[in-house]
Amino acid sequence: MTTHSDRFLRACRREPVDVTPVWFMRQAGRYMAEYRAIRQRYSLLDICRTPDLATEVTLQPVHRIEVDAAILFSDLLLPLEPMGIPFDFVKGEGPAIEHPLRSEADLARVRTFEPREALAHVLQTIRQVRQALDGRVPLIGFAGAPFTLASYAIEGGHSNTFAHTKALMYGEPAAWHRFAGQLAAIVADYLVAQIEAGVQAVQIFDSWVGALNAADYREFVLPHIRRIFEAVAGRGVPTIHFGTGTGAILPELREAGGDVIGADWRIPLDEAWQRIGFDRAIQGNLDPTLLLGPLDRLLAGAGEVLDRAGGRAGHIFNLGHGILPMTPLEHVQALARYVHQYVPA
Ligand code: CP3
Q1: Helices 329-341, 295-309: inter-axial angle, 10-degree rounding
Q2: 76 lines ligand 1 (CB under 6 A)
Q3: CB-neighbour burial class of residue 185 (10 A; exposed 0-12, middle 13-18, buried 19+)
Q4: b/e for 12-28, b at 16 or more Cβ within 10 A?
């Protein structure tokens, strides 16, 4: 069985599909030899900033795996630089922000920018990918959500506790809301620019928002996310709202917006869907580390996710988070094939 050009978009709209669509977060990346070959010659940021390279990398998984969507190869942090927050990727450590924002004065210096100028290369990549895909599968664009973007800008890199971010949120709520509002306006404009350039769906990554409880989410995050979804609504492309560790706040994520809500593996898919509401589509939710283990256990896990979806329209199969670098490509290929060949009990 092969991919089908509108299966993914139909599922986003909760329309019936021939088989469950599948794509993977981080489907382009270090687990693929083709990607590593390019990375030997170019840095991650070089690839992101060079449309020919970003196009090639975006297409790598489409050529090797039965995925029903391509995702733009870029990075969540690209908007930080034109905001006046320079950063780099440090080998083995992930992103490092040169001067983390720690005070109200730091936040006040952050600039807004025109994505059609400062991130023109991303928009050019989108046009080139659409042309190269020639309708084979749809292209997903994306951006980071205010909390997740702010957490990198404030912590300076990855964090387990989000201590600086939350301290600022609780201690300087007015400054937080100004900054989160500014991020929301930038992200909304950037997503609209991506849609104008040709992306056929957009995913908002609020990867780390599961660090908040429902009351804090409601107070500090929800109004800003809602603004982003409102700005994108009515432009004819489905929206996906993704986070991890969000089992306790799925109803709030749903309320904030998104035609499709992402769920991670910590909550069974049927329970997550119940909490989100069956009038929304759901994306998820296999544990990405299952791809590292034996194939029979991987496929049994995938079967369980599909059983829990119960053949209801509006399920997009994905992992609960991105593919890990040590993942065998053959397991990813076998998983996509399994999803397409699955027959409901
Ligand atoms: O999913 C895809 O195939 C599209 C590409 C994509 C990348 N980053 C490329 C990348 C996407 C959608 C992202 C989003 C992103 N970037 C997120 C949100 C998604 C998530 O994982 O929750 C976040 C938090 C970032 C920030 C970021 N970029 C981190 C924390 C890291 C380092 C972690 C690591 O795996 O080393 C990156 C680097 C990065 N972005 C890589 C890739 C393929 C690994 C890069 C490399 O060195 O080649």
Answers
A1: 40
A2: yes
A3: middle
A4: bebeebebbbbbbbbbb
Are 50 and 42 spatial neighbours (Cβ–Cβ below 8 Å)?
yes
Closest-CA residue, ligand 1 atom 21, reads 322
Q: What is the DSSP letter of 304?
A: H
Query: Could you tell me the residue ranges of all domains in the chain?
Result: 7-341
Report field, pTM of the whole predicted structure over 0.90: yes
Spatial distance between the Cα atoms of 43 and 38, rounded to a whole number of angstroms? 9
The CA distance from 22 to 342, in Å, is 12
Query: Are 226 and 269 spatial neighbours (Cβ–Cβ below 8 Å)?
Result: no
Q: Whose CA is nearest to atom 13 of ligand 1?
A: 75
What is the CATH topology of the domain spanning 7-341?
Answer: TIM Barrel (3.20.20)
89 sits in the region (left: phi over 0; alpha: psi -120 to 50; else beta) called: beta
With CA atoms as reference, report the closest residue to 225 among 238, 212, 207, 206: 206
Average pLDDT over residues 32-45: 97
Band of the pLDDT at 92, cuts 50, 70, 90?
A: confident
CB atoms within 10 A of CB 336: 24
Does the CB atom of residue 142 touch ligand 1 within 6 A? yes
